[in-house]
From TrEMBL:
One of its GO terms (molecular function) is sequence-specific DNA binding. This is Response regulator transcription factor. It comes from Paenibacillus sedimenti. Residues 448-547 form the HTH araC/xylS-type domain. GO terms for biological process: phosphorelay signal transduction system. It is found in: Cytoplasm. It holds the Pfam family HTH_18. The modification 4-aspartylphosphate is found at residue 55. Residues 3-120 form the Response regulatory domain. GO terms for cellular component: cytoplasm. Coiled coil: none annotated.
Amino acid sequence: MYKLILVDDEEDVREGVVREVDWEAIGFEVVDKAENGREALEMVERLQPDVVVTDIQMPFMNGLQFAEAIRERFPTIKIIILTGHDEFEYAQKAIKLHIDEYVLKPFSAQELINTLLKVKAQIQEEVAHRENVQLLKEHYRKSMPVLKEIFLAALMNRKLPRDEVLDKAANYGIQLDGNSFVVAVISIDGVLIHEDDLENRSELATSVSLKYSEDQALKYFALLNITEEIADKRRLGLVFMHNDQVVVLATHETGDRGAALQETMKVLEEVRQNVEKYLKFSVTVGIGAVMKDVTKVSYSYEDAVLALDYRLILGNNRVICIDDVEKRNVEKIRFDDLKEHALTRCIKVGTNPEIKETIDELFHGVEAGVSVKDYQIYLLEILTCILKAAKDSNLNVDEVFGENFIPFTEINKFTSLEEAKHWLVELCVKMMTHIATDRQYTYKNLVDMAKDYTKSHYHEGDITINKVCSHLHISAGYFSSIFKKETKMTFVNYLNHIRMEAAKELLRTTDMKALEIAEKVGYSDANYFSFSFRKNVGVSPKEYRNSSKGV
C-alpha cells in the first residue's frame, strides 16, 4: 500500500474524495488530510508519504508553494495537483516544479482513480528499475574483477571477520579452503628514477618518466602472468596485484607449518628462476609467516613486506622468508585494527555484558605458547587503546580511575590471565559509566539550550529547526533525534506549544487584537494563527478570551 496525503481547503471536497474512492482496491492508504499547505507540510515531514494530492488555491500556503517546498525537501514524493485553473502561469509553474500529474476540477472519482493508477505505475516502474535483478546481475558481473580486487586488498590490509571472509570468497568465486595460509610479495629489483634527479630537465624528464612507468607496468604485467601460470600449475593459490607488487596467497591442505612453508618457497623459487631466465630481469620474494586461520593472512602479508626489507642486507634476486631473518618460536599475538575497533566501539556504545564478552574474545587463544614479553606487549596495546578511547571521549583519567592510577605499572602485578582480564573489564566499565553520564548530560544540555533559544525567539516568524541547529552548531538530523528522545515531542510541536501558551497568556492578560497577538507569537498571518489556535486549543482565540474572562 502506498501512503497518500490529501490537501484541500474545502472539507466537502476532502471528505467526498475519501468517500468515493476505494483506496485499498487501487493500492493506496490515505494516512492524513489537511486544509492548507502549512499544515500539510508538517504532515509530510512527519509521515513521509509516497503521494500528495493537493489543491492549488488554499489559504496560508497555496498548492504550488506547498509543492515547491516538497520538491526541495522530499524530491521522491509524487505530487498530483487538483485545480480549476488552467491558466498559462499555473501550467508554467507546475512544469517548472516537475508536477507528476494534475486533475482539473470538477472531476469524477474515476478520473482521479485513473490519475492515481498512472502515478502508481510510475512509482512501480522506478522501484522495478532500481530493483531489476537482471540489470543488477549484469552490473555485478561486470564489477566482479574490481570487487575481487577490493576484497583481496582488504584481506591483506586488515583482519576481517570470518563470516565476511567466507561469504565474500564464495560470492567472488575465490578458493580459500585450506589448513595453512602463507602470503608472499614479489618485487622487481632495480633502482627507481627519483623525481629530484630529473629536476630542471622538464621535457626529457617527462619522456623518460613516462617511458620508465610504461616499462615498469609491462614488466609487472609479465611477472604477474608468469607467476599465475606457475602457481596454477603447482596449485599454490591466488595471484594478484596489490600496492604495485605481485602478491601470492598460498593455500595448503596440510596443517604442518614447516611443510606448507617449504612448498611455498619451492614454487616461488621456481617463479624467481623463470623470471630471470625468460623475462631477463630479477625479482626478490618476501615470504610471511604461516597462518592457520584465513582471517589472519594480513599478518602474513605484513611479515612478507617486512621480509622484503631485508634485501638491503642480504641482497636482491632471492627468496627471503621472515622465519629465517626473524626467528619466532610461536605465532605472534597481535592487537590489530579489528580488535581495536571492536573494543573502542564497545567502550563508547556497548553494554557491560558486551564489554566482558569483547575482552574474553581479545584473549581467546592467547594462553597457548605466548611468551611473557609478547603477552605484556599485548596488554600494553589493549591498555593504550582504552586510554585513547578515554582521551577521544574527553574523560578526565584521574576522575574516572582515581588520582593514584598508574596503569602501566599495574601490568606487572598480575599473576594470572583472569586477573588481567578482570582488571581491564573494570577499567572499561568505569569509562562506559562516565561516557554514558556525560552523553546524557550533553543531550539534556543541548535540549535545554534549544528550549531557551526557542523561548527567546518564538516570536520571530522565520525560526526553524535549521536556525536552532545553526545556533547550537549541530546537524538537524542529530538534533531531531535527541530532542524527541528528551522531550517526547518533535521540535515543530514544541514551537507550536510555546507559541500557543504565549498566545493564551496574552489573551488572558491583555486587550490586544488577534492580529497583534499573532505577530507577537510569530505568525505573520492572523487567519493562520486563528486556524492553528483552534486546532491546538479547541476553540477560537475570541472564544478562549471570553471563557477566561468569564471565570
